[in-house]
Q: What sequence folds into this?
């Protein structure tokens, strides 16, 4: 055998070793748990593979067998005499076990035609052990009242800064992971500033933290940021997604409406730290509170933000029903974290919500005065009945949080009850013209039982929602806040706490936080502070090889996540770091630069929004959350960064990474203009090129450049400058972008070269990442 | 649980893949043309898990010529001499059967039948009836399958359009193109898998909405990318006038070096992915303008599509562009052409609409065929519903209007494994289906089938439910498949 042959064999051996290693990794089946839990091990499989035909929906029940509760699963089978689906303690006598472990296509479960796929060996073993251990059923975790567990005992007690860390450390220990070291202060401050205000830290705060990196300085920064009025704006961005806020009516003609006064109220409510229970109560039923103030009525615009048709020729009742369906969905998904809408056409396949119960919930919203159709686009008004009207005097004296420029009154679509109760029926298949049985308003009994004989209205629903016995409301909100900070909720499916939702990664922590939140008056700022002052939050975001291998998704938080900023905050970063940001809070939405023809290409040609009339002056430099949202053509740059299109209630955004995002950062006039403006300012502010480059980097990336980074900036700058000086590049053309005035006194070649460097910094991966 | 394991494994694989790329980020930037792309290279992981495609596809690509506003089938394809015979007489209640009407005609006292004023003739092997408004379509009749019995549940534009594009009348569900991108990925590395082209006729317009090409709950890489006729065919594509390709290259090389510093600090494979996305963007900057430049098309092509094809933003230009995109491996090209909503003055409006579209639609078929692409390219033509056989507003022999009609309307398909001919029959009033109805869900199931996908198995689990384009219904129309 010659050397060549040997090396070929060696290569083959190496490859096969790699292959085997991969294979083993793929087959990395964990050991069976000591105690098999119904909620954590069995129910997810049952729900995914079995409940479709053997679950709560009576209409699709096969063989009369339900597997979602012990009394059904233990009962004798109706179609096979003498057999039982489950015999506790005896898997070999349990029809369920026999069928899931069978490979006979006429006998096995799930049946092949269901396309649900057979269970894995591991899953089959889990069932075996569960039945051996007595096949004990447990109620669904999310419908049990949360309890505060004792803090777990952990080895590394000094690491913990507050209670959160005990729960995190316990899971890390179990997973064989160790937390990262604390992040250095600059990274931490950027992360903190975006999480609390949605903006980069001010230069002052950066200097403070640079001079004093102690824990006390960090905690002081937390307090400073929580006091900022930017906090309300930051929190509102998520809530606007939940509330599917927009500036137009949607549907085909998509005319303008004015719901922005409600947005101003949301910002105001977060800023004065309105307790969450009150925040929710006002939005659900502020109009029905005793001696309701106009502010309380305004809050109910939450339920009027959805789309309204102005298409000629619609059947009004079809749309009125559609609007109530939307309200019911927004309530159940956004506030209760349930997919109740699945029960609109049939009993819920997975969760204990019957179609009747769905329409009982629907009934709470069905007594509003609104109609399905107020006329076509030629009769369009800025708000639809019922309307809250606020006079100029009222706004200027009482409701000063509304940022109104003109002197007229302002109208907002809000909730309002009919005097005589509109009857609600179960709608067959959820279709508007197929009413069947009449129902009364009753809250979801699987969540929290009530006396169903008592007549209830929307205000009662609000009170039921924020009742401390309600197992969902606090958990769902705490989870959303966690998700907004860590990028992933403790329950990953933040819109589905039901049977098909994912189980919490840290159930005790979620419950502890939820109970603690309620015990402390549903205090939102306190909750945010708790989270951001934890050691968990303060970790570095470095991706270590070992931790990465064990936990690629970072479920256990052995490192801080690296998350891209939301669409709105990408814009905010660009405007704030360049000094262009106009800090006005609230008011009507604005129309900044947008590529030509977006509205025009999609419009029917009717209505006020047929053409895009770009604003000028200060309106070009407002925060991203104030950009006008036309539902049928939402702002394209923001959509590319995964903003919600506001068509429906959304509780979570995707986080993608596409070439279109690269094109926005390279070519959007907003980014180019900001690059120019920052460059021209630095030319005046700073004396040397080095200082200018370092400052630009620091303002955008929020830390000092290292020497290597500085050298890259410098080499790019010098090469660009030479080309501008030699006339190979055109400085005048380069600087000609955006409406902000150009400082004509400046050396144009120098300004253009610096502008190019600034633009490159905006395109750095780190620029729009919390890290 | 099985899914969790698979997800975990796939995550490991994805991370491995990413970390391999990170060996020397600078060289990646320069050599990125050699590296498969995350944006477009592969079908979605979850789709891969399902082992897609399910069987050998007949079609590889789709061009969907959506006629937005609902063309009148009775004036184009569905020839009904009975309506001429009974001109002006009331639609018999036995035919209408109390079907719900839109608010525009529900209050009408009478429903006078309006026979088409246009001449019909029979063409091709199938002896298909086609009106004088479509002379070019008549010439390609042997390549198209005319389905006369599409039906839908919606009677208003917005829900009907949304139903056609997403399989549901309301809700933020993924659009058809997004489903295909999710299931099958892209055939190329320089262009998005799903492109959208818009144009407008002179007739009564109904808007289109970006939710029609939404990714819904799928990853946003599956979203349709709207091409526009302005200076930037793809939004933000063009560099500022002061920046040349060489400048952009210099910037990207320095940028990659900066990003490498961040990678050294954090070791996050997503940083490498980001560098790749910038490279893809750079490639698009060259590839897209080349494809969208129609000025270099040869004389015979210009003649085929008609002179309008040199006017950016017209339907003819979009048809030609659709062919070029398709040729370059774009999986799904979606056109929308507005102006078919003929509630009044229908004859005048539809004449104009046909002048704007007939030649180019037929040219597309001819062009694909002469390039040997028609076999693999499914072309679809049609609107969101049909129009009524009775008149809306004043009726005259040579002027009438028609309201929305969801119970039967005509759509045609060509290429991509579809058998040419005529399918389905309506009653003599053109009001109800006589035989072989095709529901929107059946239509979707058939399209997916042609693309090698089982519509019941192309699913995505979102908030606890496995969603499909066809919701919970749909049957493949086997009779129209070659």
A:
């Amino acid at each position: 055998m010659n050397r060549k042959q040997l090396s070929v064999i060696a290569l083959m051996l190496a490859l096969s070793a790699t292959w085997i290693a991969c294979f083993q990794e793929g087959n990395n089946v964990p050991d069976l748990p000591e105690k098999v839990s119904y909620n954590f091990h069995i129910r997810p499989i049952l729900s995914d593979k079995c409940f479709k035909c053997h679950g709560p929906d009576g209409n699709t029940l096969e063989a009369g067998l339900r597997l979602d509760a012990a009394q059904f699963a233990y009962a004798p089978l109706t179609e096979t005499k003498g057999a039982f689906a489950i015999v506790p303690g005896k898997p070999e006598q349990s029809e369920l076990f026999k069928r899931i472990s069978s490979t006979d296509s006429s006998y096995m479960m799930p049946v092949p035609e269901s396309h649900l796929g057979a269970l894995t060996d591991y899953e089959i073993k889990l069932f075996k052990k569960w039945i051996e251990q007595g096949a004990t059923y447990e109620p669904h975790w999310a419908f049990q009242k949360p309890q505060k567990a004792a803090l777990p005992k952990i080895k590394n007690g000094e690491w913990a800064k507050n209670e959160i860390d005990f729960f995190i450390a316990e899971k890390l220990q179990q997973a064989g992971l160790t937390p990262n070291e604390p992040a250095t202060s600059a990274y931490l401050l950027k992360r903190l500033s975006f999480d609390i205000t949605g903006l980069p830290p001010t230069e002052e705060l950066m200097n403070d933290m640079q001079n004093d990196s102690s824990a006390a300085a960090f905690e002081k920064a937390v307090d400073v940021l929580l006091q900022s009025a930017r906090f309300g704006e930051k929190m509102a961005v998520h809530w606007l997604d939940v509330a599917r806020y927009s500036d137009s009516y949607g549907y085909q003609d998509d005319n303008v409406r004015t719901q922005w006064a409600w947005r101003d109220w949301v910002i105001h409510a977060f800023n004065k730290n309105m307790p969450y229970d009150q925040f929710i109560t006002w939005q659900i039923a502020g109009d029905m509170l005793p001696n309701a103030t106009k502010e309380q009525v305004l809050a109910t615009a939450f339920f009027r933000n959805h789309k309204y048709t102005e298409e000629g020729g619609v059947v009004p009742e079809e749309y009125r029903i559609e609007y109530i369906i939307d309200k019911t969905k927004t309530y159940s998904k956004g506030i209760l974290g349930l997919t109740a809408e699945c029960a609109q056409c049939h009993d819920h396949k997975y969760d204990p919500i019957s179609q009747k119960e769905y329409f009982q919930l629907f009934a709470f919203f069905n007594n509003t005065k609104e109609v399905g159709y107020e006329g076509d686009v030629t009769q369009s008004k800025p708000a639809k009945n019922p309307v809250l009207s606020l006079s100029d005097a009222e706004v200027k004296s009482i409701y000063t949080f509304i940022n109104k420029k003109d002197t007229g009154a302002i109208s907002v679509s809000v909730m309002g009850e009919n005097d005589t109760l509109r009857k609600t029926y179960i709608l067959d298949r959820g279709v508007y013209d197929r009413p069947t049985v009449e129902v009364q308003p009753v809250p979801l009994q699987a969540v929290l039982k009530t006396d169903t004989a008592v007549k209830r209205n929307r205000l009662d629903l609000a009170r039921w929602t924020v009742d401390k016995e309600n197992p969902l409301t606090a958990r769902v909100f705490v989870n959303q806040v966690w998700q907004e900070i860590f990028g992933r909720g403790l329950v990953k499916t933040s819109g589905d706490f039901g049977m098909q939702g994912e189980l919490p990664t840290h159930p005790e922590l979620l419950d502890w936080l939820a109970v603690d939140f309620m015990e402390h008056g549903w205090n939102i700022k306190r909750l945010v502070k708790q989270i951001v002052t934890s050691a968990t939050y303060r970790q570095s975001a470095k991706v270590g090889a070992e931790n990465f291998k064990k936990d690629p998704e970072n479920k256990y938080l052995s490192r801080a996540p690296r998350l891209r900023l939301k669409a709105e905050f990408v814009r905010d970063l660009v405007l704030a770091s360049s000094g262009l940001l106009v800090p006005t809070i609230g008011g009507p939405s604005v129309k900044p630069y947008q590529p030509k023809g977006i509205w025009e290409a999609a419009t029917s040609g009717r209505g006020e929004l047929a053409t895009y009339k770009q604003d000028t002056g200060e309106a070009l430099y407002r925060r991203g959350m104030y950009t006008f949202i036309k539902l049928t053509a939402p702002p394209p740059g923001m959509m590319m960064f995964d903003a919600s299109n506001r068509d429906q209630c959304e509780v979570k955004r995707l986080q993608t990474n596409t070439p279109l995002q690269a094109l926005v950062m390279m070519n959007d006039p907003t980014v180019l203009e900001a690059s120019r403006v920052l460059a021209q300012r630095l030319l005046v502010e700073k004396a040397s090129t080095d200082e200018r480059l370092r400052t630009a980097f620091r303002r955008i990336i929020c830390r000092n450049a290292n020497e290597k980074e500085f050298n890259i900036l410098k080499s790019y700058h010098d090469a660009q400058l030479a080309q501008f000086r030699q006339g190979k590049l055109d400085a005048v053309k380069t600087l000609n972008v955006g409406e902000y005035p150009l400082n004509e006194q400046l050396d144009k070649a120098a300004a253009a070269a610096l502008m190019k460097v600034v633009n490159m910094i905006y395109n750095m991966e780190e620029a729009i990442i919390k890290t | 649980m099985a899914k969790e394991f698979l997800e975990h494994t796939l995550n490991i694989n994805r991370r491995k893949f990413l970390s391999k790329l990170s060996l020397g980020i600078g060289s990646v930037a320069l050599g990125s043309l050699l590296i498969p792309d995350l944006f477009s290279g592969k079908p979605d992981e979850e789709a891969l898990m399902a082992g897609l495609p399910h069987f050998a596809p007949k079609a590889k690509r789709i061009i969907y010529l959506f006629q937005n506003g609902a063309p009148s089938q009775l004036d184009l394809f569905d020839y009904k001499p009975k309506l001429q015979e009974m001109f002006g007489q009331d639609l018999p209640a036995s035919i209408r059967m109390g079907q719900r009407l839109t608010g525009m005609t529900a209050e009408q006292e009478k429903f006078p039948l309006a026979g088409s004023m246009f001449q019909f003739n029979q063409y091709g092997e199938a002896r298909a009836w086609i009106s004088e408004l479509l002379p070019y379509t008549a010439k390609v009749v042997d390549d198209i399958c005319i389905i006369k019995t599409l039906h839908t549940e919606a009677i208003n534009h917005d829900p009907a359009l949304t139903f056609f594009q997403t399989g549901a009348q309301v809700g933020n569900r993924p659009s058809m193109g997004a489903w295909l991108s999710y299931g099958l990925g892209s055939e190329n590395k320089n262009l998005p898998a799903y492109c959208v082209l818009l144009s407008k006729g002179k007739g009564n317009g109904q808007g289109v909405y970006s939710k029609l090409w939404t990714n819904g709950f799928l990853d946003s890489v599956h979203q349709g990318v709207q091409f526009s006729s302005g200076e930037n065919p793809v939004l933000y594509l063009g560099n500022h006038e002061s920046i040349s390709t060489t400048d952009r290259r210099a910037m990207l090389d320095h940028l990659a070096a900066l990003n490498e510093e961040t990678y050294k600090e954090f070791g996050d494979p997503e940083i490498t992915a980001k560098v790749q996305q910038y490279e893809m963007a750079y490639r698009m900057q060259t590839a897209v303008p080349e494809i969208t430049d129609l000025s270099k098309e040869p004389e015979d092509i210009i003649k085929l599509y008609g002179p309008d094809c040199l006017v950016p933003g017209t339907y003819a230009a979009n048809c030609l562009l659709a062919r070029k995109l398709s040729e370059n491996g774009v999986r799904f090209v979606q056109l929308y052409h507005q102006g078919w909503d003929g509630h009044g003055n229908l004859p005048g409006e539809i004449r104009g609409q046909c002048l704007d579209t007939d030649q180019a639609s037929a040219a597309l078929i001819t062009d694909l065929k002469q390039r040997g692409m028609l076999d693999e390219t499914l072309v679809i033509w049609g609107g969101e519903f049909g129009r009524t056989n009775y008149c809306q507003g004043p009726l005259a022999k040579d002027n009438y209007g028609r309201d929305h009609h969801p119970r039967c309307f005509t759509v045609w398909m060509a290429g991509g494994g579809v058998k040419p001919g005529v399918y389905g029959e309506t009653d003599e009033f053109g009001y109800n289906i006589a035989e072989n109805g095709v529901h929107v869900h059946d239509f979707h199931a058939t399209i997916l089938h042609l693309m090698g996908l089982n519509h019941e198995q192309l699913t995505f689990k979102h908030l606890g439910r496995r969603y499909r384009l066809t919701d919970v219904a749909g049957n493949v129309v086997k009779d129209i498949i070659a």
Observations:
- The first strand of chain A starts at residue 387 and ends at 390.
